[in-house]
Amino acid sequence: MEESLTPEQIKLINIFEKFYQKPVSTETELLYTTAQIFTRLQSLYASDKYTTEDVYQVLTYLKYEWIDSVTHQCIIWCIQERQI
């Protein structure tokens, strides 16, 4: 069964593909929480039409690796900003 994405999540996928990538080097920070990524996305595309849950679903859909941080009670994603 294929996952169903909302139009807003599809917009987020396009933003991720343009501005982010799976880690390829250690030159920039690699680990971000879902909330940090949400905040960064809001600076690129400010909207009340998506939530941190949408960000989580999109990152999962794009198969980004993640670490479950029990200490910080959050998910930390292995993601890197593209050097544009």
Record keyword descriptors for this entry.
84 residues, alpha+beta, three-stranded antiparallel β-sheet, two-stranded antiparallel sheet, 3 helices, 5 strands, 40% helix, globular
Structural write-up:
The protein has 84 residues and is an alpha+beta fold. Helix content is 40%, strand content 19%. The protein contains three helices and five strands. A three-stranded antiparallel β-sheet has the order 2-4-3. Strands 1-5 form a two-stranded antiparallel sheet. Strand 3 (66-69) and strand 4 (74-78) form a beta hairpin. Helix 1 crosses helix 3. It starts with 6 loop residues before the first helix and ends with a strand. The mean pLDDT is 88.
Structural class: alpha+beta
Beta strand count:
5
Strand count, sense and closure of the main sheet?
3 strands, antiparallel
In terms of DSSP E residues, the strand content is 15-25%
Categorize the overall geometry.
Answer: globular
Return Rg in Å: 13 Å
Helicity range: 40-55%
Write the element-wise H/E pattern from the N-terminal end onward. HEEHHEEE
What integer is the average pLDDT? 88
Query: Count of DSSP helices?
Result: 3
- Poorly predicted runs are none
Distance separating the two termini: 35 Å
In order across it, which strands form the biggest sheet?
2-4-3
Task: Give me a quick take on this structure.
This protein is an alpha+beta fold.
Q: How would the blueprint of this fold be written?
A:
Elements: H1 7-19, E1 20-21, E2 31-33, H2 34-44, H3 52-61, E3 66-69, E4 74-78, E5 80-81
